[in-house]
Every structure is written in structure tokens, then in C-alpha cells.
């Protein structure tokens, strides 16, 4: 005789409950302890214990009322540079559509932003200021692009300059547009990074720029990272991939001024 869904839930072992929670996190990005407790017919205390165990494994980040999926962007920069190259190139082509001639563009470090550097138009009389040596290399000797490289200590994870020197230089900039790197973005939790100095520099970049744009691969959406950068409402232009579910896209459009889908 086939068991009912409720009987199946009642018979779950603790490790099976934890796996179900992880599956839900991967599907939805965010879970609420109260809703899980009701669904699993268990206490919120038990659900929070499962979330704590998942967080200890680096699989999620606990937030008020529940948890967010942990961003997968905590990888060495050399690894990230070789991942999803074609997808990042499509995002870059969409992102550079907002660039106008004679602008001062502040370009943060990050593999997607390196793709944006390569996609910037020639002969547009642009000044591009970047803390990314990789992005700088893509821009050298390009006609109509003046490049300024921000100095400082190169952070291994971010593959860009961070620290006091970089921070001071960014604070002296007044840019028209900033392409900000983001390790994670959630409509409620905002933009986040994995490194404290990197997060501090990103906050300075936001303050130094007239408009903020982020181009983000889908796996970073509705995820969390340890250091907060800014609320999602600070993002003027968000570029996402065409596989983002409609419900998730609606949540992003509710907090970001302009959300554009990069089509294949």
C-alpha cells in the first residue's frame, strides 16, 4: 500500500530532513524555519539545528527567520576566470549597452567584469578606472579608452587591489558609472562579498559613482556571503541570465530599478 506524503514526512530520519531542507534551499535560494517546521511536522528548534549544521558545512548562511543558500563564488580567481566563459560574455554584451561616450567608468574586479572590459566599445573616449589587473590587460592599447589601474595589495580571492591604498584612490574618484562585482545578491539581504576589505572597497566604489550596475550569473542570485556591501535597492542596473525563473525575476525587479535579461 502506497504511503501518503504526510506518512513519508513523518518517517524521515534526521539526515533525510536535512537533505530535504538542502534540496529546498537549492531550488528556492531561501527557506523560512517556521514554514519548514510546519511542513516537516517538527519544531522550529529542530529546523534551526539542521540549518546550523548546514551552515557549518558552508552550504548556507543563516539569516533572520531562516537561511539563504551560500554563494558558490568563494573559489580562487584563476578557477572563476575559466568558468562559464560564454555565459559571462553574453552578460557583458548586455551590460555595455548602458555605457555612453566620454564616461568615466569604474570597473571592479571579478571574472564577469573582465568580460565587460573586453566588451567595452572602442572609440568611445572612455576613461576606465579599475582595480583588476586582468581587466586592465584587456583594455591596454584599445583605441579611445584611457585606462587607470588602482594600486594596492592584490587579494588572491578577488584578483584585484584592496586595502588602504586602493581605498584612498577610489575615494578620490567621481565616476559616471560603476560595474560592481558581487559574490552574492538577494533582494532582502542585498549585495555581499566574501572578503572584508573587498566589501569595504565596493562600498567606496558605490559612494564614488553616479550609477551602479551589476552583471551576475544565475548561481549567485538569491545567495549569501559573509560581508554586506549594500542593499539591493542601491543597484541601478542588474543584468541576469535568461534562465532566471519568473518568480525570482519578479522579486529582483521589485527592488532594482532596471533588470535586464541577457538573451542567448
Automatic annotation (TrEMBL):
UniProt superkingdom: Bacteria
Signal sequence, start to end: none
This one is known as DeoR/GlpR family transcriptional regulator of sugar metabolism
Q: Which UniProt keywords apply?
A: Repressor, Transcription, Transcription regulation
Extract the InterPro entries matched here: Carb_Metab_HTH_regulators, DeoR-like_C, DeoR_HTH, NagB/RpiA_transferase-like, WH-like_DNA-bd_sf, WH_DNA-bd_sf
- GO MF entry, a single one: DNA-binding transcription factor activity
Q: Where does this protein have coiled-coil stretches? A: none
Indicate yes or no for the key word Transcription. yes
